[in-house]
Description:
mainly alpha
Amino acid sequence: MLPKRIEYSVRALVALAGAAPRTVKAQDVADAQDIPSGYVYDLLADLRRAELVQVQRGTGGGYQLAHPPADLTLGEIVRRLDGPAADPPPDADRSIERLRHLWERANRVRLDYLDAVTLADLINHRPQRPT
């Protein structure tokens, strides 16, 4: 299961991908994807910092994708938003180290799966690619 922040981010990107190449107002993203209005601005700022969206300021401005929908996989989106995994503290015992390796492996499998789906797949309602 993905964190709500990632889910909302993907939903926002889907809204922008569906409108590409036009810009979309933040409130329109929130309304279209049922994202809380107060949260959508923080979310879009995170997406901008991750270089997934661009902002066009001024009248007629808004948000748009920074990359074509076919070039953005869900795995890449998660990587850009989550960043590198934290290492355990140096004094961690062996059970924590083993657990960390288990989580890393599970995360790699999850990201490999998500790398098979692009934003274009989502907006075009394409079925999942076989694993």
